[in-house]
Amino acid sequence: MSTDPKQEWDALLAANRTAEALAVLEQQARTGNAPACFRLAGLYLIGAVVPRDLPLAREFLRRAVRIGHVDAALLDVALTANGTGGPASWPTARALLDQAARSDPVAAAQRNLLAEMDLTVDGRPVRRRLSMALAKTPRILRFERLFTPAECAHVARTATDLLEPAMIVDPVTGRDAVNPIRTSDAAVIGPAREDLVIRALNHRIAAISGTETDQGEALTVLRYRPGQQYRQHLDTIGQTRNQRVLTVIVYLNDGFTGGETVFAKAGLTIRPRAGDAILFANTTANGMPDPTAQHAGLPVAQGAKWIATRWIRARAFDPWIGPEAA
């Protein structure tokens, strides 16, 4: 066995010798090893080889921060803002970000982007956004320039290293599955990646939809390259007690050809424009899936189309359990 503690615990975890790996990690954490504290925080956060324990994850995370672990500091900012493993506090998260920004250029860039936003003391937008009605059945609204170019770029950068072939929620089983109707690449910006810029944008999406931020699923970024598309579909999910009642799509770029969003039953074709958002209802007044809300993303002909989608539930949604378990 290697004498390098990190290599030792990695080897033990790879061999499914979880108890031994945890013992090594905990011993190293007691001696003030920041990577060990950070690794323990991650294990308890995702619940991969140990039961998920969000408060315990935060405890190990704070230990790593106190020792000076940069990545732990940024993760602590995100979890403080969205209330993972403890009470949510935007002011505390902002203070933590300001502290991290003194020595970390990534934190400084996030702080600078937040400074350009007009926010309340709890990170919500100050001003009300005006909308343009595109259709009544289903109700479709367009919000021009909901995101700035810098905000669009930040969302795309945050998602880039997470991109993988897109999944859909199977309408029968409610589970994630590969399906040929969607041929894009996708990235889910979950709570651990929800930095304060992303959190503020999720607050903005909640504001235009008239919902609470915790009703939204994690922001999902989709990239469509030439030939990729999303065929006609509904965003609602079968066998769920907490339906997707609204969808918000933000177009992160333009300059590509094809890729229009089409609501065939409403006779509506929407050409993407960077920063614009559309909001539409997925259900009828009685909460049932609305067949007129079927829509498609046409194939991209040239370039790449990037969008950010947030599916909004009827009630609060736990982003740690995944859409299939809601």
Automatic annotation (TrEMBL):
InterPro entries assigned: Oxoglu/Fe-dep_dioxygenase_dom (IPR005123), P4HA-like (IPR045054), Pro_4_hyd_alph (IPR006620), Pro_4_hyd_alph_FE2OG_OXY (IPR044862), Sel1-like (IPR006597), TPR-like_helical_dom_sf (IPR011990)
Q: Give the Fe2OG dioxygenase domain ranges.
A: 215-314
Keyword set includes Glycoprotein: yes
Q: Which SMART domains match?
A: P4Hc, SEL1
Name the needed cofactors: L-ascorbate
* MF (Gene Ontology): iron ion binding; L-ascorbic acid binding; procollagen-proline 4-dioxygenase activity
Tell me which stretches of the chain form a coiled coil: none
The protein here is known as Fe2OG dioxygenase domain-containing protein
Ordered alphabetically, the record's keywords are: Dioxygenase, Endoplasmic reticulum, Glycoprotein, Iron, Metal-binding, Oxidoreductase, Vitamin C
